[in-house]
Amino acid sequence: MSVNASAINKELLPFLQQSPSPFHATATMLTMLKAAGFELLQEEDVWQLQPDKAYVVTRNESSIIAFTTGRADPAETGIAMAGAHTDSPCLKLKPNAIKPHKAATQFAVEVYGGALLAPWFDRDLSLAGRVAFKRKNGELASALLDWQRAIAMVPSLAIHLDRDANTNRTINPQTQLPPVFALNQGEATTPTLDSLVADALSEQLGVDDFSELLAHELFLYDTQPPAMVGINNEFITSARLDNLLSCFLCTDAIRHAAQQEKGQFSLMVCNDHEEVGSASACGAQGPFLQSVLSRIAARFSHAEINQQSEAVERMIRRSLFLSIDNAHGLHPNFADKHDAGHGPLLNQGPVIKINANQRYASNSQSTARFVNICQRVKVPYQSFVVRSDMGCGSTIGPITASGIGVETIDIGVPTWGMHSIRETAGSQDAAYLAAALCDFFTSDTP
């Protein structure tokens, strides 16, 4: 099938803007899916799953699984599965977040994930994430907040005071990255995080009975909105393209699958904490996906109760998992950083990521299956292998493959500046991958 790039990008850019934290990304995806008719499930409830329906469930408000059910036994048909991750490298507030220092008041931050630090300087930064607080009546509550406007920055040191800045500079994340958000005018007027949160709760959510901030997971982000760039709008530039672009495409594709009447099982999972190792209850190394698959098999497999674990294994062995995460596009200024035969180009189609040491989960079988999909929908595709003298990153692909035993392929959209505060992708590539995903979720066999 063909997918219109303009239509995809018209929805993609607002999605990126509305998703400044994993919590907001999950909430945005949930809104999209509920609007498309997906029924929200709660993990603590008994699930009454029905054939030819669409369901969605979240964990920790930062990971999400959506699936469509079919009419056949999934142990006989398998499930078409795709996964991405909701988190991106950034600066995260420490528990004691306010740091008066000399003439300024700063946020105390730690680096979340493998962030490229230099681009964080001289940016207009805002704050977003989740807070847990106590109401005046003693009730515990939580909320998602997004300050939206620029409230902080990390000012550079003038080159006059650092003549080696362009030739020999390192960045100390403890001493040189704390963002400034106010002048320090004495203890009486120094803002507190409690006061910032109380004001935000009142302004954004109408909560006027705030008593005390108990905990928070707040992240700084660049307020510059996503944009189409290039003389012919060849590029998309935005924060968090890695990996919210993939999250959006998964959500859009399964939303499309739910509108079909083909009776197929399909599933998408977007996990938090990939950038820090995935080892959490809602990360890819946790039990979230396995739990949902077990509940699907328990409802739809024809096996006896004592054989349901076997039905799960049979279902997984007939499935294919697409691990979707951005790939390193060939940088025109640093072409020597790529293997000469494996430098993916922007706007030339999705990238199949391969690594001999299993940093990616692709093998010849899963690769052939994805190539077949691309050929079927007339989408170009490329391959990436890291240079043999460089280390290779990884994804949720090997974690999911080794965790549940599903055949997996690692793919993604080629990108420049991965893990920067602002990344660049080709404006056509999202549509290419969207076409392949839509076909994958609606074809007769995963």
TrEMBL record:
GO terms for cellular component: cytoplasm. Its cofactor is Zn(2+). One of its GO terms (molecular function) is metallopeptidase activity. The keyword Protein transport does not apply. GO terms for biological process: proteolysis. Its EC number is 3.4.11.-. The keyword Protease applies. It holds the Pfam family Peptidase_M18. It comes from the Bacteria. InterPro entries: Peptidase_M18 (IPR001948), Peptidase_M18_dom2 (IPR023358). Gene3D superfamilies: Aminopeptidase i, Domain 2, Zn peptidases. Keywords: Aminopeptidase, Hydrolase, Metal-binding, Metalloprotease, Protease, Zinc. Belongs to the peptidase M18 family. NCBIfam families: PRK02813.1. This is M18 family aminopeptidase. It comes from Pseudohongiella nitratireducens. The gene is apeB.
